[in-house]
Amino acid sequence: MENIRENEEQKLAEKTVTVNIDGIDYKVPVGISVLEAARMVNIEIPSLCYLKDINEIGACRVCVVEIEGARNLQASCVYPVREGLKVKTNTERVRRARRTAVSLLLSNHHRECTTCIRNLNCELQNLADDLGIRNIPFTGEMKDYGFHDNNPAIQRDYNKCINCRRCMAICNKIQECYVYTPINRGLDTVIAPAFQKDLSEVSCIMCGQCVLACPTGSLTEKEHINEVWEAISDPDKYVIAQTAPSIQVTIGEVFGMPIGSFVAGKLVAALRRIGFDKVFATDVTADLTIMEEGSELVERLLHHPDKLPLLSSCCPGWVKFAEHFYPEFLPHLSSTKSPHAMCGALTKSWYAKKYGFDPKKIVNVAIMPCTAKKYEAARPELECDGYRNVDYVLTTRELARMIRQVGLDFPNLPDEEYDEPFDQYSGAAMIFGATGGVLEAAVRSAHKLITGKDMPVPDYEEARGQSGLKYGTITFGDKTITVAIAHGTGNAKKALELFKSGEKHFDYMEVMACPGGCVGGGGQPILGGRDYKYISLSYRHNRADALYNIDRDKEIRYSHENPRIQQIYKEFLGQPLSEVAKKYLHTTYVPRGVHPYLKKEQFYKGFSEN
Description:
This protein is an alpha/beta fold. The chain has 2 domains: about 15-140, Ubiquitin-like (UB roll), CATH 3.10.20; about 225-600, Rossmann fold (3-Layer(aba) Sandwich), CATH 3.40.50.1780.
């Protein structure tokens, strides 16, 4: 059915109509909106609420145009093209209507631009500048809707919300968590969780896709920059930075480098100049995650088939989704910690002992693509020997702000190497950042564990691509298993429901909460503002392709061949799934319910002690 639908859509796209936009005839595909048609021919129609295929509701009225024969201005994002249609996008009437719409939004918007986290990267700010709005003619009492930040990951400033509903559309249609809903009516409307509760009190998975979608500073990550600066400035602290695989191909975008630029060496140089004592690659513990999760897969396949399917667990957004909506599947989640938690646990145990450091003085700072990692770091389960695995999580965006605060010329920094012993990693670790990468990396090592031989071709093409839900088969010697890959928790929900109904079967499934995987994480650079018209899922393709190219160029492409992994097992862990490994590298999960109403101190455990 999916192939039939795709073929029908392709045939429809091949049909064209002629439309006249601002006096020039253009041939455009049938079925698209006037907004899409204009942008296809490089005519910019501004918008605020529009997200292609996700939020097409004509609510903000910023994209209005004149249509010949229509008495009123029309919202171009919901007006379909037709043969002979005549459109004017730049008349005095249109410009006046757009200025009025934006001025009305600004009249009840707390305009703290110079101190706002989205300053110079705010769609509302940029649109006001483009439209030449220099004063707000509408005055009156400004409402105060409040500020919510009773969780470690995401903060919500309702005074900067413009009711575009993009957060709600992403959460409902892509993630299917249904956290946001319109509350009240008319001018009192607020887009918020039920009863305007904090995100810590509802079934929010902290993925941050709403933060990426928000055009203003109404939804942002909760910053921990000041806390990290304080730790770096403390001579009694030994501050370690660890960087996730996907950061190496995304942070360069903030500084004007092409999407997908591999900047690992410059990233290390920047972190050293900021003042971190050591810079580690989380990729090393990504290899370690593969060894532990791959061993779990082999153990279940060979000895405990009743515990199948095995579900990946390195994505904290997905884990929280399962805890809320599918607690019956929690026994099927791999108990393996995510790579950043493993790195934190090892730096305060094996590394501290090996190099003679007091674990109490070690501050582990994880640079992650994900807001959910902030939540994960605060989980009470992620603690060993009385120490938090990770003390602070900074998103890609937060690190970029620190680099700017120092005044570093990032593109022209020299390329430097990661510090021992978290410095060498395989190609399998790099592809962790792309959807399907965890599963592909795991089966490479699982093949070795089962057959004693490396996979003849390490590239598992069926795991790649941006399709939201994929199925495939993998053969280990004389044994064949079925695998599934989902990105976006809405797709995970679909897969689990098909499994429960018996329509689909799989032995192993990887889930990434964010579309595209970590390269599309909620903490990644926000490509918006004036360039928002160019943004689509294609940028996630480019980032993922960069990771796969690095993997192909790596001399070591299997996690079990990484000499650092072999060293860690020899000196500390013994072997995968050993008692020591289970203590430091594995965790547990908690059924949370769809309406949890948890106390905030449960989320702050650990952070309050730093």
